């Protein structure tokens, strides 16, 4: 399976029309049709449903599109790393992570690093812990911000300083807004918008205890900004991590007993990394250790 043919496939999937795709790829339509037919034969499945005015992806076609896009990203990353000047620290560093307070600290590290190495650029990929771990494992991400605990067999890491705190984000005119702390009993018969992170789901279930059966779930989310919009519209209150950000018309109320976690900047263990990534890891560890020394 050639990357060139996968790029052909992605173009057809985007355009939903072989003629337009052929024109954009600067190949003839018969040639493109033969390449796709050969790809379908190689994979033993149909990738497209051919209709009168357009073609759409089958279920297998949708899966292949996702994998092909990942392969193209990885190919681009390899080309970038191979073309970098080995005598200087330059190029792209890709970092994944969720919406965490530790992103503020990471941004400070990135800024300080670029002051020394201005030819470095950062690519930030927002996502939950599962997405970030998968990206690191597949080589699509160099590093990631993860909530502890983290497998020491899979990852090396440097611990970030901010504490990640769970609470409820609710409209200021809601019945919950009067509280300074939220206990599980306060959420009985309340409508909530919950994070869809599986690791945190079990922790939150433990915190709720028997009161878990007495809440109403209106929606799940993976990005807080969208959840806040839903809460403002009256869909429910959001169970979320505290961020150093202001949301107009909303109030964050911490949980009691407190539910807090530490986060880490993690990278794949026992792996040879690009020169710019290695330099950034060393820089980040020194930066974080320096903050720890200052706090002693």
From TrEMBL:
One of its GO terms (molecular function) is DNA-binding transcription factor activity. The keyword Transcription regulation applies. It comes from the Bacteria. InterPro entries: HTH-type_LysR_regulators, LysR_HTH_N, LysR_subst-bd, WH-like_DNA-bd_sf, WH_DNA-bd_sf. Keywords: DNA-binding, Transcription, Transcription regulation. The keyword Transcription applies. Residues 1-58 form the HTH lysR-type domain. CDD domains: PBP2_LTTR_substrate (cd05466). It holds the Pfam family LysR_substrate. One of its GO terms (cellular component) is cytosol. Belongs to the LysR transcriptional regulatory family. This is Putative HTH-type transcriptional regulator YcgK. The lineage of its organism: Bacteria, Bacillati, Bacillota, Bacilli, Lactobacillales.
């Amino acid at each position: 399976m050639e990357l060139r043919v996968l790029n052909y496939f992605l173009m057809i999937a985007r355009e939903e029309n072989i003629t337009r795709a052929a024109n954009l790829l600067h190949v003839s339509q018969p040639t493109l049709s033969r390449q796709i037919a050969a790809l379908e034969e190689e994979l033993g499945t149909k990738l497209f449903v051919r209709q009168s005015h357009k073609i759409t992806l089958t279920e297998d076609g949708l899966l292949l599109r996702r994998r092909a896009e990942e392969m193209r990203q990885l190919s681009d990353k390899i080309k970038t790393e191979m073309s970098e000047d080995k005598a200087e620290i330059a190029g792209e560093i890709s970092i994944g992570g969720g919406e965490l307070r530790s992103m503020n600290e990471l941004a400070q590290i990135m800024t300080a690093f670029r002051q020394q190495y201005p030819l470095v650029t950062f690519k930030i990929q927002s996502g939950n812990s599962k997405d970030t771990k998968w990206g690191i494992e597949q080589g699509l991400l160099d590093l990631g911000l993860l909530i502890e605990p983290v497998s020491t067999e899979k990852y090396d890491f440097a611990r970030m300083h901010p504490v990640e705190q769970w609470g409820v984000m609710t409209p200021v005119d809601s019945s919950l807004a009067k509280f300074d702390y939220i206990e599980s009993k306060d959420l009985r018969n309340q409508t909530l918008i919950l994070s869809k992170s599986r690791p945190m789901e079990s922790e939150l279930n433990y915190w709720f205890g028997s009161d878990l059966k007495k809440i109403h779930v209106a929606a799940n989310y993976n990005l807080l900004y969208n959840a806040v919009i839903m809460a403002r519209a009256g869909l429910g209150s959001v169970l979320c991590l505290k961020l150093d950000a202001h949301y107009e018309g909303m109030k964050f109320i911490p949980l009691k007993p407190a539910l807090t976690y530490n986060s880490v900047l993690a990278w794949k263990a026992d792996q040879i990394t690009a020169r710019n990534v290695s330099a950034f890891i060393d820089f980040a560890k020194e930066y974080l250790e320096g903050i720890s020394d200052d706090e002693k």
